[in-house]
Amino acid sequence: MSTSRIAHACVPGTFDPVTYGHLDVIRRSCRLFDRVTVAVAASYGKNGTGPAFSLDERVDMIRGAIAESDIPSDVEVVGFEGLLVDLCHQIGAGAVVKGLRAATDFEYELQQADLNNLMAPDIESVYVMGSREYGYISSSIVRELAALGRDVSFLVPSSIDKRLKDRFGRS
Ligand code: PNS
Predict the structure, then answer these.
(1) Nearest-CA residue for atom 8 of ligand 1
(2) How confident is the model at residue 170 (pLDDT cuts 50, 70, 90)?
(3) Domain boundaries defined on the chain
(4) Which ligand 1 atom minimizes the distance to the CA of 15?
């Protein structure tokens, strides 16, 4: 296997919607790699009925959230269908970066890392520990609170908060 350094990493996820926790992982990936691409998975089969926001909406929402953050503006955001490792080969990313919040994330992430490694041993899986203040955030919690009409402005950037209000209705 090649021992050359990896310059380009991919930060994948469903991002339904993107949260401060995701943005923390993207920001930290930018410190580790020269080039970062956020890869938004179609995840059509997720949550039974599929994601709450369409793939195009989720891509657009992440671009907006990055624009209103201190994350470097050269971070690319792409949507994809199919396998993550195929996308990595297509865009020339040598690593996948994900965040680990708690031990409960570990088994799921280990399974994905093992599978990706079997399919594409040239792609490294890299994990960053989520910041303490974002450990409890997940997209499903954000969606649930928003659907119940609760304020989620402490969990997501203002542009995402606005989208959630438009989607779920909240004064
Ligand atoms: O935000 P999520 O839902 O935890 O992200 C999971 C994601 C999108 C990274 C994962 O489901 C994925 O890689 N999907 C693309 C399809 C794929 O490659 N599946 C095989 C690896 S499990």
Answers:
(1) 13
(2) low
(3) 8-135
(4) 1
